[in-house]
Amino acid sequence: MQREYTVIYQTIEDGWIMATVPELPGAVTQGENIEEAREMVKEAITLLVQSYRENARKDAPGNAMWETLRVEIPAA
């Protein structure tokens, strides 16, 4: 399943690139260059979303109903 996220890149200390995802608080990482920062943020997004899903399943009551919805959000 593919999803789109907005990623903000900015140069930080010693020329490293920090990547943050506004839609996913906690998805913050960095790389020595833009390519490395991009790969690192992809991994951070994947791990964070997997963690959210696992926790939601553990915390949900036994009679909870699950559904996957597709929502179109216009690009900024």
Largest sheet, in brief, is: 3 strands, antiparallel
Classify the beta-strand content into a percent band. 15-25%
Helix content: 25-40%
Number of β-strand runs = 3
Instruction: Categorize the overall geometry.
Output: elongated
Radius of gyration: 15 Å
Mean pLDDT: 92
How do the SSEs run, as a string of H and E? EEEH
Distance between the termini: 22 Å
Cross-sheet strand order for the largest sheet: 1-2-3
Number of helices: 1
Uncertain segments are none
What does this molecule look like?
- The protein has 76 residues and is α+β, with helices and mostly antiparallel strands.
- The chain has a domain of 50 residues.
- It contains 1 helix and 3 strands, in the order E-E-E-H.
- It has a 3-stranded antiparallel beta sheet, with helices on one face.
- A hairpin with a 7-residue loop joins strand 2 and strand 3.
- It is elongated.
- The two termini are 22 Å apart.
How would you summarize what this structure contains?
The chain is an alpha+beta fold and 76 residues long.
Task: Present the secondary structure layout.
Elements: E1 8-11, E2 17-20, E3 28-31, H1 34-59
Antiparallel strand pairs: 1-2, 2-3
Identify the notable features of this structure and list them briefly.
3-stranded antiparallel sheet, alpha+beta, elongated, 76 residues
